[in-house]
Specification:
194 residues; alpha/beta; Rossmann fold; eight-stranded mixed sheet; 5 helices; binds guanosine-5'-diphosphate; binds magnesium ion
Length: 194
């Protein structure tokens, strides 16, 4: 969180976390395509040749008012692949809220869990932890899931009973709903601190 009192701006950082290819970039692309250009900045995406996220994607959106301040939500994605651990740590610095984008396909179950544990470790490094930090769970790729895999994911990933939504990010389903929930969650938490 960063407050620019001269500009009456409240900057909040929301990070889309999750294993590689779960749909984090797709979420930001859809948000970018749907939000009035007056209320958002450019979508900055750094990609490798294989079109996987190398460092991060970034998008800034502006909504409403909080205690007379204009909140700007800085949305970031992390690179999910194991070897970008250092990038994830850097991106998580100063984080105010997290959207965990899980891949609902049955064979990604272990990858989801590994990524959630990685998030927990990195939150702890920042003085937070999953059980007190504002985060929401998006079960993405619902179109490729079986009823079993959704139930299994809820059991494995939602042991803390956080707000949970299913989504098909590639079709825009559940994307704005997830963002709204993440923003509400994050704002409720900062309200206590400003
Ligand atoms: N079938 C399906 N494909 C999806 C969905 N969301 C994303 N994808 C695809 O999954 C791939 C990886 O998505 P991407 O956003 O790059 O993943 P990231 O690594 O988490 O950023 C892309 O080909 C997307 O089009 C979804 O809900 N359903
Ligand atoms: Mg990506």
């Amino acid at each position: 969180m960063f407050i620019n009192w001269a500009q009456k701006e409240l900057n909040l950082k929301v990070v889309y976390y999750g294993p590689g290819l779960s749909g984090k970039t797709t979420n930001l692309e859809y948000i970018y395509s749907q939000i009035n250009p007056a209320c958002r900045g450019d979508l900055v995406t750094l990609k490798t040749r294989e079109e996987r996220t190398l460092y991060f994607d970034f998008l800034q959106v502006e909504f409403g008012k909080i205690k007379g301040l204009r909140p700007k939500f800085n949305l970031y994605t992390i690179p999910g692949q194991i070897y970008y651990r250092e990038s994830r740590r850097i991106i998580l610095r100063g984080v105010d809220g997290v959207v965990f984008v899980a891949d609902s396909q049955q064979d990604r179950s272990t990858d989801n869990l590994d990524s959630l544990l990685d998030l927990e470790q990195n939150l702890i490094r920042n003085g937070h932890s999953l059980d007190t930090f504002p985060w929401v769970l998006q079960l993405n790729k619902e179109d490729l899931a079986t009823p079993d895999s959704i139930a299994d994911l809820k059991e494995k990933l939602n042991f803390l009973n956080v707000p949970t939504l299913t989504a098909v990010a590639s079709k825009g389903k559940g994307v704005l709903e997830t963002l709204k929930m993440a923003i509400q969650n994050t704002v409720a938490n900062v309200h206590e601190t400003i």
